Amino acid sequence: MTEGTITHFSYSQLNTYLMCPLRYKLQYVELIQPAFTTAALAFGSAVHEAVAAFYKQHLLGESLRPDQMLDVYRQAWNSRNGADVRFFNGDGEESLREKALQLVTVFHQAFDPAVEVLGMEEFFEVRLTESVPPFHGYIDLIELTPQGRTTIVDLKTAGRKLTKAQVKTNLQLTAYSIGAQALGFDSNDLSLRLDVLTKTKNPEMTRYETTRTDQQRERFTRLTKHVWNSIERECWFPRQDWHCQQCAWAETCAKW
């Protein structure tokens, strides 16, 4: 069995360990390939690529129509092996494609051309502590508002709207705020935003604005340090909850 060498740490790794330490071991240490890809993950990634394509064309002074964004969605979806995509909750490939058109149309209508795009998929690397490998990440979008305020944006697809508590405690945005500092942005003049496309009966795009304090960033650093310490000590155990029903490592986990 091939063992993985962890050369860097990321939000995805942190979140995976917090969700289920045993899944972290199977995925990142033993490098066991997932038995399938959930349709929700494939859908979210494909919509994300469609929005990214829109922003790339916007930077070139052009604009993609919703039907053109749907073409990008189709290409992204088809780049995955359809036989490996597993559907849940009554979803199907055709119904998700229709939902994708609705979501990119909603996004298109909500886009403000007055906002200046400063960067997309901006890579950052930061050393949180000496004991933790370099922390890597990619910031989805960096905007400059007409008022001159820099905003770090993360785009999500979700089945329902978020609560204020979910936005306030979102760890990925905290990681992004640390990454923005590493890229040279002033945290005192920085806002954070979650752009959430909801896959409800009547899809909509909701923007959740928030900020992060130095105390929240320090807490994130402490959390990352303790999680990494647990990984180094090989503290593996399954955390059984609703995630297990759609986990691509469930069969391997059952043999633990």
Describe what this molecule looks like in 3D.
This protein is of the alpha/beta class and 256 residues long. The protein has one domain (9-231): Alpha-Beta Complex (Lambda Exonuclease, Chain A), CATH 3.90.320. The protein has helices at residues 11-19, 21-29, 39-59, 66-78, 93-110, 164-168, 171-182, 214-232, 250-254; strands spanning 9-10, 37-38, 85-86, 116-126, 135-144, 150-158, 190-198, 204-210. Strands 1, 4, 5, 6, 7 and 8 form a six-stranded mixed beta sheet that branches. The chain has a two-stranded parallel ribbon with strand order 2-3. The radius of gyration is 19 Å and the shape is globular. The two termini are 15 Å apart. The model has no long low-confidence stretch (mean pLDDT 93).
What's the CATH topology label? Answer: Lambda Exonuclease, Chain A
Mean pLDDT: 93
The biggest sheet amounts to: 6 strands, mixed
Number of helices: 9
Terminal CA distance reads 15 Å
Q: What would CATH call the class? A: Alpha Beta
Helix residue percentage: 40-55%
CATH architecture title: Alpha-Beta Complex
**Whole-number tally of structural domains:** 1
Assign the structural class, choosing from mainly alpha, mainly beta, alpha/beta, alpha+beta, or little secondary structure: alpha/beta
Q: Radius of gyration from the CA trace?
A: 19 Å
The low-pLDDT segments are none
Shape: globular
How many strand segments?
8
Query: Element order, helices and strands?
Result: EHHEHHEHEEEHHEEHH
Give the strand content: 15-25%
